[in-house]
Amino acid sequence: MDFLKELGLEGVLKGTYAGEWIGGEDRDKLVSYNPTTGEPIGTVLQTNEEDYELVVKRAQEAWKKWRMTPAPVRGLVIRDLADELRKHKEALGRLVSLEMGKILQEGLGEVQEMIDICDFAVGLSRQLYGKTMPSERPEHRIMEQWHPLGVIGIVTAFNFPVAVWSWNAAIAAVCGDVMIWKPSSKTPLCAIAVQNIVNKVAKRHDCEGVFNLIIGKGSTVGERMLQDKRVPLISFTGSVAMGKHVAEVVGRRLGRTILELGGNNAVVVMEDADIDMAVNSIFFGAIGTSGQRCTSTRRVIVHESVKDKVVEKLIAKYNKIKIGDPLDEKTTMGPLVDEQAIIAYERAIEEVKKAGGKILYEGGRIEGMKGHFVKPTIAEVKNDFKIVQEETFAPLLYIITFKDFDEAIEIHNNVPQGLSSSIFTQNFHYAEKFISPAGSDCGMANINLGTSGAEIGGAFGGEKETGGGRESGSDAWKLYMRRLTSAINYGKGFILAQGIKFGDDEE
């Protein structure tokens, strides 16, 4: 495939970068498989413990120079990265579809997200504002500055193999940090392709070592990075179970974490909703990325008076889904990422049936197709079913009915996760209350929009078991920096705060 050659993905690939590619044939090999066919795409030499140590040391050295580079100059590097990504958008988008399995439109959209966050970060590089505050003491002032943290660990998941790295890396870079990226072992080629693109930019700006890569087993290098005091911040995207482990390990050394974990996202459909708008949003939220987004729509909490209409229109759309090769422009839904994902999906469907749920649209494994293909499922359930309380990373959509707004909010909030939420209504009272303290308890709440497809301008993240992290826009940049408060005396006397008198200053 020509786009693999364009992205430098030929032959056996080295999976460690620290200013240069590191690796030898004695490293363990990782094979990347195409979820559409089950066939291998490429082989990567994994990072070992010695490689990891070299990466950290070189990153530390690079930081000494990078932290003193003026922030607007750092922004120019990210501006050039955006331009380089524009050149390779088509190729990188195709690679995302090939290796991860999301349809081409979503693959291209993910690369556009990278470009957008880079553009945002360029502007941010001139807006890392501190504050100046009045002092109670004469001829004194107080000010705050924001300084870089150091070496940042970025751990990303398979479902967004390039965009989530950029949310962190573009912002952290303009903040003056250097990065070590550990991508998912399910999508290593995407990470190497991005690193190749970044390297062109870093070489032009003489900043090799700012962006680094380790591809290896969690037990070999992942755990080591969590425990490494030289890495003050770990940004982790993944499951709730693994996120709790990350928080515990990093917390024991008093390190910082940004945790983007699971979602159990719901769309509330009120009796006065624009049904077509709601159904279109639910359809994308449930089917996009084959239900493998942390923001995928899992639950539809629908007023009993419009439930039948909503279900009827959803089933009509499901009947038109074209499942197949994600690189085919006619495809609506690609494969799940691997066999384990199918097994988890099948187990969830069985749990729904055992709990007394009613299958409205029968899904499951598609026999006779190469790769990891399934049909989506719609089931009518109760919110308190154990399986409904969990996140199933697959196209499994739950229908739950309610009688009034207060019941809808109670159902909505009664899950452990708290990432994304939405309500469809034309009623001002419902809309405002949904985003009030008495409404959705998620980190993101939308009105007449679905749960999936966030823009980069707002801070992305959730509450409760979603981890509380925030990435991307707004003031999420502060998480990658340390605050320095300075009191400055420009007078000639020594004056203590709070009017304290200490000792005898008279001669």
Walk me through what this model shows:
This protein is α/β, with parallel strands linked by helices and 507 residues long. The chain folds into two domains: 18-261 and 467-485, Aldehyde Dehydrogenase, Chain A, domain 1; 266-455, Aldehyde Dehydrogenase, Chain A, domain 2 (3-Layer(aba) Sandwich), CATH 3.40.309.10. Helices cover 36% and strands 22% of the residues. It is built from 14 helices and 26 strands. It has helices spanning 2-6, 49-66, 71-87, 89-100, 104-124, 163-174, 188-204, 218-227, 240-252, 275-287, 307-318, 339-355, 405-413, 428-434; strands spanning 13-14, 16-17, 21-22, 29-33, 40-45, 132-134, 140-148, 151-155, 178-182, 211-214, 233-237, 256-260, 265-269, 297-303, 358-361, 364-365, 374-375, 377-380, 396-402, 417-418, 420-424, 444-447, 459-460, 463-464, 471-472, 481-489. The strands form seven sheets. A seven-stranded mixed sheet has the order 3-2-10-9-8-11-12, with helices on both faces. Strand 11 (233-237), helix 9 (240-252) and strand 12 form a beta-alpha-beta unit. Helix 5 (104-124) packs parallel to helix 6 (163-174) and helix 10 packs across helix 11 (307-318). The longest helix has 21 residues, at 104-124. It starts with a helix and ends in an 18-residue tail after the last strand. The model has no long low-confidence stretch (mean pLDDT 97). This is aldehyde dehydrogenase (NAD(+)). Its EC number is 1.2.1.3.
